[in-house]
Amino acid sequence: MKVMSKRCLQIITALLCVLLLAGCGAKAGDPAKAADDGQQWGPPAQDGFDEPVYRTTIFGIGISPLETPPRREDKVWDGTAWVDPVDPEVTQRTIVTPDVSVSVRWAEGQQGQDGISDAVRDYMTLVYSLRANPDMDVQEHPCCTDEMLEKARFSAFMYSCILSFRLQADITLESLTPSASDCASVRASIDAREAAGAITDAGYRQEDSWSMAQELTLTRADDRWVVTEDGGADISAFIPGGVRDEVQPSRELRQAVEAYFRLRADEMAGQMGDSACTTGTLLTEAKLFASEVDWSRVYGAQGRACKFGSPQELLSSEVRLPVTEVMRIDGLQFVKRQPLMCTSFAVVDHLLTLTRTTDGRYMVVGDTYEYGGHNCSILDSIN
Fold first, then answer.
1. Is the pTM of this model over 0.85?
2. Measuring CA to CA, which residue among 238, 204, 230 is closest to residue 347?
3. Which position among 88, 254, 319, 359 has the lowest Cβ density within 10 Å, counted as fewest Cβ atoms?
4. Largest alpha-carbon pair distance within the chain?
């Protein structure tokens, strides 16, 4: 065992030496000194621009490129060549009128309360309607609490890389608690048929069938049942740490943060946002962040706030607040060398500093975050 370990260590050490020598010896733009495979990393050079960067591989192990090729302003990379930027036929999201049908029944041998099944039907209809139109303006709904509505809206936002044009769901309920209680838990077995497609083409739809089970918790209040917990699959779980707030911020703080993230999204989409929510320095920073996004073109963006941390009072009128920004970006990408509208998400953890102004609202004056190779650490003043 000791001999084998020593031999393995010698092999690993030798391999690392070879990799280091290869990385130092291969220079950008020097094919003769590149790896024997000669494959290019990224787009080739254009006249008047930097030479291509070559990828070095040793025994199938790839070494990261030394630098990223510059992006041409008048050309876009379609995966194999520099081409003229041809816009896709559609550059805006399709607005979908929700076509949702939900039926609910109790499992065989069970007779639950009609109020529970009605609340489940209304709640699941709301969830699937938001998935069809994630930008639908719903401020409150009698079938669920405000917290559950916000969770449903955020989940629909994260699902919005595709659009659900039509959905029919048959739900069978199984009671998990005594019916006499004012708090009920049910298991919902869902069999659904869905037509979904691209965000810009209502004519392209793919039919699919799926099944799942999830637990719902309901509470009776004012002679009606409302959904207070949903244990179903949640796309927001893909965000590290989830999306649950550590604390519920005040309405004024939340409004200030959401206005700031809307401004950043507007800058990403090349639109003029409401800059009254922040300082000129942070507005310039938002423009810089947008300019560094690796997309050929951006046609739309939206920003949402989640995971509010505990606010720290710095001064009588100043607060430091950790919060996560989720930005949805609709832009031009090439699929099989055809320009298409695609969606991507940027998840950024911010540490914001907010100051209360004389009119009682909050204004973002400081921001610290890292995303990719972009770093920001700004603390400004409104005086």
1. no
2. 238
3. 359
4. 81
Rg value, the chain, Cα: 26
- Tokens 């998840």 sit on residue: 347
What are the domain boundaries of the chain? Answer: 2-70, 100-236, 251-379
H/E element, 308 = none
What is the phi/psi pair of residue 321, to 5°? -140, 120
Helix, strand, coil tally for the chain in percent (to 5): 25, 35, 40
Residues 136-186: tens digit of each pLDDT: 888 788 999 988 888 888 888 888 888 788 899 999 999 887 766 788 899
Amino acid (one-letter) located at 128: Y
Confirm if 264 and 253 have CB atoms less than 8 A apart.
no
Strand order in the sheet with 100-106: 100-106, 163-175, 183-197, 206-221, 224-230
For β-strands 76-77 and 61-63, DSSP reports them as unpaired
Label residue 58 exposed, middle or buried (CB < 10 Å: 0-12, 13-18, 19+).
middle
- Of 1.10.3470, 3.40.50, 3.10.450, 2.40.128, the CATH number of 251-379 is 3.10.450
What tens digit of pLDDT does each residue of 200-249 get?
A: 665 566 788 999 999 999 999 888 899 999 887 566 666 666 666 677 78
Query: Which residue has 């000129």 as its token pair?
Result: 280
Give, as one character, the DSSP assignment of residue 48: T
CATH class of 100-236: alpha beta
